[in-house]
Each structure stands twice: as C-alpha cells, then as structure tokens.
C-alpha cells in the first residue's frame, strides 16, 4: 500500500498509482467501443489532453465533463486530473440544467457532446477528446504535485429526493475507497475486466468501473453508450469478469440474457455488484438460478465516494446488505449497531469528501471536516448482524398517523408473482387526506386485476392503517433518473 505523503508531491495524486507508477505498458487499460487503449496509450492520451487544457484555462479552472460515450468521459476526466484544472462530472441527460451549473459554480469550460453544451462557450468536443488517442509524439508528463487533501474532482448526488448537490472529492478519497472495497469485496487483479450499466458520473461506476480497475492494473470496458444491448455486447466481446450494475438493470438483463452468446458470457462473470436501490429478492434468486451468481447488494453515498456496507461473495444473501466494509465505521440511530436496532445511518472513513455545495449555499463550498456523514438512509440490523435497507428518511410519509416507508413496502410487493417493478409514493385523495399510491409494472403474462388484488392484500398486512386509502395504478414504465434510480421527487 502506498504511504501517504504529507507535503506537496506527485505521489499524492489520485492517478499516481494508476498511470505514473511502473507497470506493463502494453497491458489493456480501457477497451470498449471503437478503441482499445493500453496503459501506455492511456497515459499518452491523458497527457495530450492535459496539455491542451492547460493552454486554454488558468490553473484551478473548473471544467464540466459530460458525454454519452463513456470513453470520452473517461479521457476528459483523466486529462482534467492530469492538468491544473478541476473536473466536474455531470450526467449526460437532456434536461439537466447545465446552464445553472455553469453559472452557480463558475465553470470555465466543458468537455463533451456539443448538443448537451450549447450554453458553454469554451468547449472541447467529444470528437476532439477521442482524437487524443494515438496522438504523436506523446508528451512526457508527471501528475501535478498536490496535497492528499487538495480537491481533485467534483461529482453530483443523484437528486432522487431533491435537487442534486455538488460534492468535492480530495485526491486521497477515491484511493482510500479503493483500498477498503478492493481488499474484502472486489479483489481486482490484472486479469480482470470490469463493465458497468451505469455511467461514470455516478461515483459507484466511477470507482468500480474506472478508477479502481486502473489502480489495480485491471481493465475497464467503456461502451459508446449505456443501452443494455450495447453493454452486453461489450461484456461478451471483452470477456468481462465483473459487472457493476443495479436492480433495474439486473432485472432487465435477466430477461435479455437468453439471447445467443449473452447467457454464456454472463455465466462467466466472477462478480456481480448491485447498488443504487435495494435489490429485490426475486432478482437475486433469478440471477442465482439463471447465471449461477449471487449479486452483491451494497450501499454507499456520493459523499463517501463508494460503498461502505456490502456482502462478500461468500456471504451474499437475498434482502441483505451484508456488513460494514473494513476501513469504515457506521452508527445506527447514533449508536453502535447491534442486532434488531433500526434508525438513521451515519458513516465515517478516510474516503469522505472534503466539501459540499448546493443551491442553498449559493455556490459556496462548505468544508466537511471529520464529522460523521449523515447519509439520509434508514437501516435495520437483523439478528445475525446483517444490515437491511429500509429507505430514505426523506421518503417516509404518514397515513392515518402511521409511518409508511416506501422501500420497505416495495420490497414486500416485489415478492408477489407478476409484479416486475413498483413504486410507493405519498398522495392525497379528493378530500385532501393522505393516502398511498402504488404504481406497478406487471409481467406481460399477468392480469393487472390479479396483481392489484394481491397488492391490496399485502398492503393490508404491511400497513393496516393505510389499507383503505390505497390507490393502485398500472404503468408501462416508472420514472427514473440517468442513474437508473426511481425519481421519487419527480413522482411527487
């Protein structure tokens, strides 16, 4: 393990271990799409990009990185990190208020797709970013000398329960998260190839499908887009060993996996990670019976860069988040977790972000310090010491004096036959009284009326006070954000 250096030094830089330390130059680093970059080619492309950025922008400038092509996102990010600039990773989604981000956080320029960046004058287009690949002659470059606590990059929370917040990560953060998560969970090596159904602006994918593989000398497969057929094609083509995904995508892959060639490639996976939302027991069991793996449900937050609750491959169990990842401390309801305790989850560890900003702060960065991080999640510890996810505290609502926890109710409803997806939300009836609305996506071979009847019976058992105030709607799809999470704020 690399010892931290307290003075300004290139060895503190987030990319030192990934691209600056000696390793096999021709080993694959970023295969995917139309490109296959070795570690030497990646270092050269990042160096060329960094030189262009330093010519365009003063030191310390903030630059957006936003594109659909995941290779372009990776190169834009790595070049920005190699330069004197600070990258802000943003989801590539029409409707994202990029103009507001540019104004609020004083962004100097952007790298990525022009159709997403109409309001930004200084733009390096995706085509130019991909043009850094193979540029000659390569520019010898060492990462800038930094303190371990210096800001390295910004990411944004998903905004599932409100407006996204900007989170400032130091150079030490992702490396600390990698050392903790890789030791007990990932165990990445040079022979591994990772692939993700989520985009790199999501720190869960940024870590597990870019920075962590590079730190381990493995390869990260980066497709040109995140449509599931594209991801599965790249998974098969490059013989991925680790899939980084979430419940919604895993459920869809289980339905697509019988396509010729895909099933065999999925069964060859060494590890399947699931995060972003609770993993339904039905999806866990379907993956186990169809492909032979037990997906590892894990929980983290943007402020901690990666997951701090997870199961090891040997411990994975349906409905369980497992235990605390070594290197982190957690509290439940403000106390040391013990069997049958439930409450608000807080965490601390070396990977914690160094600053946070939101519209409430009007663009100012609020230092985080070493206090506990209040995640906004509610969990329960079962009788064996395993953690069970109950939902976001912001999502709770009362009906007839009784708290309804949507994620907890959804977990029960997803056990019912014919219920493919569901979302529980607060609503009001014609008298302005609180009630529960359940939106469901049913399997094609199931009659909605049968599913509705079962849901009413299940809710009567789960939340008796709300049983007479439930509205059930059939839906073709549920509202989701760019990271595949249920967009509850949009539904409200």
Q: What composes the largest sheet?
A: 7 strands, mixed
Distance between the termini: 47 Å
Output the CATH class name of the largest domain: Alpha Beta
Report the strand count.
26
Unreliable residue runs? 1-5
How would you characterize the overall build of this protein?
With 492 residues, the protein is an alpha/beta fold. It folds into two domains: 10-381, Rossmann fold, CATH 3.40.50; 396-491, GMP Synthetase, Chain A, domain 3. 29% of the residues lie in helices and 25% in strands. It has a seven-stranded mixed beta sheet, sandwiched between helices. Helix 11 (281-291) links the parallel strand 12 and strand 13 (296-300). The protein is globular and about 70 Å long. Residues 1-5 have low confidence and may be disordered.
What structural keywords apply?
4-stranded parallel sheet; single chain; GMP Synthetase, Chain A, domain 3; 492 residues; 7-stranded mixed sheet; alpha/beta; 2 domains; globular; Rossmann fold; disordered N terminus; 14 helices
SSE layout and pairing:
Elements: H1 16-20, E1 28-32, E2 35-38, H2 39-56, E3 62-66, H3 70-82, E4 86-89, H4 98-104, E5 109-112, E6 123-125, H5 126-130, E7 151-156, E8 166-170, H6 172-186, E9 193-196, H7 203-216, E10 219-220, H8 228-237, E11 242-245, H9 247-256, H10 262-267, E12 271-274, H11 281-291, E13 296-300, E14 307-310, E15 323-324, E16 328-332, E17 342-349, E18 355-357, E19 366-367, E20 373-381, E21 387-392, E22 397-399, E23 402-404, H12 406-413, E24 419-428, E25 434-442, H13 448-462, E26 470-474, H14 488-491
Parallel strand pairs: 3-4, 3-5, 5-6, 9-10, 9-11, 11-12, 12-13, 25-26
Antiparallel strand pairs: 1-2, 7-8, 8-18, 13-14, 14-15, 16-17, 17-20, 18-19, 20-21, 22-23, 24-25
Helix pairs in contact: 2-3, 6-7, 9-11
């Amino acid at each position: 393990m690399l010892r931290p250096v307290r003075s300004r030094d290139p060895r503190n830089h987030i990319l030192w271990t990934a691209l600056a330390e000696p390793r096999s130059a021709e080993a694959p680093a970023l295969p995917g799409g139309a490109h296959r970059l070795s570690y030497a080619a990646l270092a050269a492309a990042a160096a060329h990009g960094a030189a262009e950025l330093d010519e365009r922008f003063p030191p310390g400038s903030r630059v957006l990185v936003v594109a659909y092509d995941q290779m372009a996102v990776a190169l834009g990010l790595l070049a920005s990190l190699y330069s004197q600039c600070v990258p802000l990773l943003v989801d590539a989604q029409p409707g994202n208020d990029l103009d507001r981000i540019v104004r609020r956080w004083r962004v100097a320029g952007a790298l990525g797709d022009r159709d997403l960046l109409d309001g930004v004058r200084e733009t390096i287009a995706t085509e130019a970013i991909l043009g850094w690949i193979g540029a000659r002659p390569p520019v010898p470059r060492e990462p800038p000398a930094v303190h371990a606590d210096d800001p390295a990059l910004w990411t944004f929370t998903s905004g599932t329960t409100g407006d996204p917040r900007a989170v400032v990560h130091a150079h030490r953060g992702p490396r600390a998260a990698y050392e903790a998560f890789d030791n007990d969970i990932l165990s990445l090596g040079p022979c591994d190839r990772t692939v993700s159904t989520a985009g790199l602006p999501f720190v869960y994918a940024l870590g597990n499908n870019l920075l962590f593989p590079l730190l381990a000398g493995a390869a990260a497969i980066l497709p040109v887009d995140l449509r599931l057929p594209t991801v599965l094609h790249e998974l098969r083509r490059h013989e991925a060993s680790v899939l980084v995904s979430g419940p919604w995508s895993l459920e869809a892959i289980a339905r697509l996996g019988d396509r010729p060639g895909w099933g065999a490639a999925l069964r060859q996976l060494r590890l399947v990670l699931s995060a972003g939302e609770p993993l339904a027991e039905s999806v866990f069991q379907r993956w186990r019976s169809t492909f032979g793996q037990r997906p590892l449900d894990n929980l983290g937050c943007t402020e901690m860069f990666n997951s701090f609750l997870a199961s090891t491959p040997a411990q994975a169990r349906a409905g369980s988040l497992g235990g605390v990842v070594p290197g982190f401390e957690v509290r439940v309801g403000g106390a040391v977790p013990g069997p049958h305790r439930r409450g608000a989850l807080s965490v601390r560890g070396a990977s914690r972000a160094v600053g946070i900003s939101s519209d409430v702060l009007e663009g100012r960065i609020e230092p985080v310090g070493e206090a506990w991080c209040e995640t906004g999640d509610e969990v329960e510890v079962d009788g064996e010491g395993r953690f069970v996810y109950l939902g976001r505290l912001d999502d709770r609502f009362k009906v007839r004096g009784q708290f309804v926890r949507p994620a907890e109710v959804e977990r029960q409803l997803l056990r019912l036959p014919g219920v493919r997806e569901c979302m529980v939300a607060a609503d009001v009836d014609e008298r302005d009284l609180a009630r529960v609305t359940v939106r469901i996506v049913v399997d094609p071979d199931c009659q909605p009326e049968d599913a509705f009847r079962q849901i009413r019976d299940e809710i009567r058992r789960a939340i008796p006070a709300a049983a007479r105030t439930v509205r059930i709607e059939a839906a073709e799809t549920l509202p989701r954000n760019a990271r595949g999470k249920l967009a509850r704020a949009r539904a409200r």
